[in-house]
Amino acid sequence: MTVAASATAPLVVALLVLVVAVAVLTALFRDVLAAVVVFAAYSLGLAILWVVYRAPDVALTEAAVGAGVTTSLFLVAIRRTVRPTGERTLSLRVRPRSVLAAGLVGALLLSTVPALPAVGDPTAPAFGPVPEFYLTDAPERGIANAVTAVLVVYRGFDTFGEVVVVFAAAVAVLVATHREVL
Amino acid sequence: MRPYTDSVVVTKTVRAVVPFVLTFGLFTLLHGTSSVGGGFQGGVVLGAAVVTLAFGFGLDRTWEVLDKGLLTGLAVSGVVVFGAVAFAGLALGGSFLRLDAFPVPKSTVYATELVEVGIGFTVAGVVVVLFFELAGGTDGEGERGGNRGGERR
Fold first, then answer.
1. Which of B32, B82, B135 sits opposite A145 (nearest CB)?
2. Is residue A44 part of a domain?
3. Of residues B32, B48, B116, nearest to A69 (C-beta)
4. pTM attached to this predicted model
5. Which of A68, A104, B15, B80 has its CA 20 to 30 A from that of B24?
6. Per-residue pLDDT reduced to its tens digit, A9-44
7. CA-based nearest distance A116→chain B, Å
8. How confident is the model over A87-128, as pLDDT tens digits?
9. Domain residue spans in chain B?
């Protein structure tokens, strides 16, 4: 584990630098199209990071939803906007209040990090009896992918609700655009 | 509005990539129990493939080709299938959402895959609907005005 961790450490550092850099760029770009493209790069960097952290299911969703679908939704949304002329595409001028607000929220979120159990802590809830049951019971039922087993078999109520929420999103958009029939 | 199809590179790339994306999406959707993926991931990839088509061939052309009834059916199917499987568990003497109550071998696996396919169809349908509704949306005067219900095939 430590060998694998040290082998991927430069990659993780590079990806984290990339993610933070494109996140800052997204805020700095005055041109909305450029901001959308950079934001897609942010999602792509995160997706690769999830793969490195062995969460391929999350990576697949991040790449498809974050980098793919969200970007295309933004693109069709900015079709309705007008591109400002004569303004610089990248501006380093930011309002101090915005920086302050972002910094405060960031500090607030970071202050919760020490409350998390340490990496590999055997007393962490992630190593309790319930995940142990999931990991032994799912293969016995013939489901090799534990993520799918948790989503559908053990947490079926949540997932049922999720599907209804996804469906409701389409209904909500149709209602908002005053078109009950496709 | 500038047409989307003014670049040969985009059209050719979309033409080449979309079959592979669709295949990958279906694979992800159908192999959720045995490998990475599942309904949500596969469905999003399938929906994204249709969105890619819109970028290659234009919003209006892609929207005209799409079967609106099928799209509605896809969007509904996940809720219906999940609900049916959930209540079937109840009807077969188990409880709500009891997936191993079906009188078939490997009941949990097949019930899960059925649910996954339903989820995937809903997600794919909803992604496509969201995209085209936001694109066509509320501009009453534009080229894709409010009476799109009338141009159904």
1. B32
2. yes
3. B48
4. 0.84
5. B80
6. 899 999 999 999 999 999 888 888 889 999 999 999
7. 27
8. 677 777 788 998 999 999 999 999 999 988 887 788 888 788
9. 4-139
